[in-house]
Amino acid sequence: MKKSYFIFFFLFLFLSITLFSVNPNISQNNSCTLHNDYLKVELFTDGENVGFIKSVKLANFDQSLISNHKFLISGSSLISEIQETSDNSISFISYGHELEVLTKYTLENNNIFISTTIINLSNKTKKSQLVEIIDYSDTFPFFSNTKLMNNHVFLLQQDYGGFGYLPLDKPSFYRIIPGNNMISNISILTLNSNEKVTFNRVIKVEKSIADIEKEYYEMHGIAFQTFGKKIQLNNGKSSQGIRVVLEDKLKKIRSVQIVDENEMALFFIPSNDDYQIKVDFGNLKTESMSLLNSDYIILDVPENYFFYQPLLTNKSENGITVNFRTFIPARAEIEVYLENNPNDILQTYDLIPMEYHHVSLQGLKPGGIYNYTIRVDDTYSNSLESETKSFQIKPYDEEIKSFNFLVYGDTQIYDYLHSYVVNRIINDNSDILNFAFVVKPGDHTEEGSSEKSWSNFFESAYPIGSQVPYYTALGNHERNNELYYRAFELPRGGGDYSKRWYSFNYGNSHFIILDSNILENTSLFQEQVKWLENDLKNNQDSAFIFVAFHHPFWTTATEYGPMDENSPDGHYNTKYWLPLFKEYGVDVVINGHIHAYERYYKDGIMFITTGGGGAKLNTDHSAEPLAWHIKHVLGKLHYINFEVTEDSVKATVIAVAEIINPLFPNEYNEINEIIDEFYIH
Questions:
Q1: What's the pLDDT tens digit per position in 188-198?
Q2: Which of 199, 293, 408, 632 could form an SS bridge with 598, CB 3.0 to 4.6 Å?
């Protein structure tokens, strides 16, 4: 039976009214699910990963604690299939080179028990290794640890729960190798003919890794002391759910705890070391103090506000994602209703106090226009309420006869000009919901590692982004920083966090977003090229294919001296990507990076560079135009309206301002000028 504080924590923070019973469900996405009141465990049932864990999630919470778990046996390629299912378990049987492997997953409360039996079917002794891999590269963990009392374990603290991977048969695994958002657990096998060996381990999920540590000590009879510290807020609100860390003398984090319903942070320590303790929860922070010298910490709580204003992504036939960041972690609620039916309100909750909110609104009507309001709970500070905004859900693709989408490019540090371009788009178009989405090809901020710079971006984009979803590409100014990935929930693709590159469909068209910053002599570059070719192969039935990335293949710009892009060979991506674009019928390529407007037409593909979203504009385009160069326009802020019908694409490039003097980029004259227009049939 679980302790009462654990049940209270999950009921209070993680569960909504509906509770699940355990039942393995085979779904349409090549997986099956075990779920109960605490956890939802998804396992692969098709493809090369059959029999492995796809995700571990808290009940009614969409973000996974890990990306996946799998195991390998050296010298064997396993072929697996489902062997047996029950109310709370599922078993797989796998065959390798003279091996048989039986794996059973059993879900009990907040535990996933994993038992793997390996049988040597040969007539000789076999030596090999069992290598288990836990991948958490799609997540943003706060802390991880691979040892307890010099024993090998794996502990992971996410914003929304603690994850523990522990041995059941011995005090420790043989060896755990930490990697880049991935760990490998190695066990040595020596099996005589027809001999078998069984490995038993457990995945534990608690509110914190400190609680998992306590269970581990109890399981193995390790003595420990309990130390508590009361966490008090200066405004009198409850501190429950706040993250507290334990540090050693070198300021290295040793454990993480979440404040309980009694406003206590409890740590379980099997040694007499002098530890420090502090609050470290987003912008709620304190200095370190001795765990033993005082009974409480008083925390000054600042005022809460929308640090990142709401912005939409991931539009589908039945849902959309609302992204925002609060300055202080807090619970949030979104109310959404059909525009013509305000009495039928759907409420979606983020019941876990979070900074970064990616709330997926699901179960909506295809093509429906909805109003929504965000309400941030007064969890630790003041409450917040957004303006009521509208969005339109994607209709079914076969029902979309035509659609418009919006493109504008580099914005960087000039947030004032970015805001001007956004507001002009709003004012120039009678209904912003006529745009299905926005494609933005990189350089959204000046410095991708600056939280304030991102805050300014969201503020500038808000008038459109709160109503029309954005699909973004990485520019060089994002520096591939984690803040980019934390800010946007994007379609699942490949690379870092499975969204460095990705694709989506809309109506009769297919859209591909790539990262043009990856160096060509890396394995990641080849991974993206392979993904690109497979994605193009699998979408040949699309009427039009659009590809967006930051760096153009060619330009006449010489702002910073001669460039590879001034030559016919172009940017280094050209020799890898252009043959694929030609072979698989790409129609339009959209780029940024060059702070001007340019257009090229080669091999039946229209290449468009649009860098007029607010960044400082180019003045020097003195390179000799290539034979396939069509047009370039300097000194004008602009955006592009694409109209896609059943058999044509019309692009209208609208300039909204002309910079008077390049030395003073914030000074401009308002204009309303079509600087280019073209069709693709």
A1: 889 999 999 99
A2: 632
